[in-house]
Amino acid sequence: MDASAPVLSVQQLDYKYEQQNVLEGVNFTIQQGSFAGLVGPNGSGKTTLIQLILGLLRLQKGTIELFGTPIHKFKNWNKVSFVSQKANTFNRGFPATVYEVVSMGLTGKVGYFRFLNKGHKAQIYRALENVGMREYADRNIGDLSGGQQQRVFIARSLVSQPELLILDEPTVGVDTENVERFYKMLARLNEKEGITLLLVSHDIGTITSYVSDLLCLNKTIHYHGNPSEFHQKSDDELSQFYGHSMHSISHNH
Ligand SMILES: Nc1ncnc2c1ncn2[C@@H]1O[C@H](COP(=O)(O)OP(=O)(O)OP(=O)(O)O)[C@@H](O)[C@H]1O
User: Fold this and answer.
1) Is any ligand 1 atom within 6 A of the Cβ of residue 44?
2) SS3 at position 96
3) Any idea where the ABC transporter domain is (predicted)?
């Protein structure tokens, strides 16, 4: 594995469902240490792209490399972690503490946490600390707010110490006043722990204050670069980059 290779490289990627082209000529790379935000309107292909990156959909055309290895040969999946938007629609009656839920990131099963050693326990507390949920360790997961649960799920994905964390619409279900707090927590993880983040969102408003790289997807990548340069562009250029629904989207949030 090439240590200097980008964490993620996507080249000439096309994807279609039956006759519908969903991705066309998608090219981008994400370097180690970036906090990348992938934004695009509904139906722009974000979920399809993420599923391809996670190896959940079979490549049709183009290449994807993770840490310099073509995805079909990639085996180091412990370096990659994924938090889906559905993570916080957790069954409120689920009888597990925050500590137990985070331990699942190591064991895959609730209950097995009893067999974890001291080092594992320290990792669990550290992951909770990193998302500001250390003092909730003994609370029942079902008793927490959506935003707090989402932070616990991020801790669960951090406990295996991934190098790339992919988050799909992680603020769905997080109350608005906690959204900024949530992004600040991600920015801290990125800076202090050096974890490369790829955050998928349809919310171009808030994320641009936090991400280092902005990628606008609408079938293809219309913009990849610095978020502040993106905002200096004229409205016409913005709608070209983002697609026609740019305005309605930025005004909705
Ligand atoms: N399994 C599927 N079979 C057929 N068409 C699909 C399938 N999954 C997605 N699509 C279509 O592909 C296009 C892109 O969908 P995708 O879910 O990747 O976009 P998205 O940007 O994640 O959208 P959203 O923000 O609404 O989740 C849409 O037109 C969608 O209807």
Assistant:
1) yes
2) coil
3) 8-243
CATH 3.10.330.10 assigned to domain 8-252? The reply is: no
Listed range (14-18, 51-55, 158-162) with the worst mean pLDDT: 158-162
Average pLDDT for 82-101: 76
For the record, the structure tokens of 140 come out as 């029942």
- Residues 42 and 39: their CA atoms lie apart, in Å, by 10
Beta pairing, strands 8-17 & 20-30: antiparallel
What's the confidence (pLDDT) of residue 246?
Answer: 46
| Pocket flag, ligand 1, residue 150 (CB < 6 Å) | no
Ligand 1 centroid, distance to 46 Cα (angstroms): 8
**Burial letters 46-74, b for 16+ CB under 10 A, else e:** bbbbbebbbeeeeeeebebbbbeeebeeb
Residue nearest to ligand 1 atom 25, measured at CA: 42
Pick the closest to residue 74 from 159, 157, 9 (CA basis): 9
| Rounded Cα distance, 162 and 164, in Å | 6
Structure tokens at 39: 């934004």
- Coil vs helix vs strand at 80: strand
Concatenated DSSP letters of 118-147 = HHHHHHHHHHHHHTT-GGGTTSBGGGS-HH
Rounded Cα gap, residues 187 and 152, in angstroms: 16
Q: Are 49 and 217 in contact (CB under 8 A)?
A: yes
Q: What ipTM does the predicted assembly reach?
A: 0.96
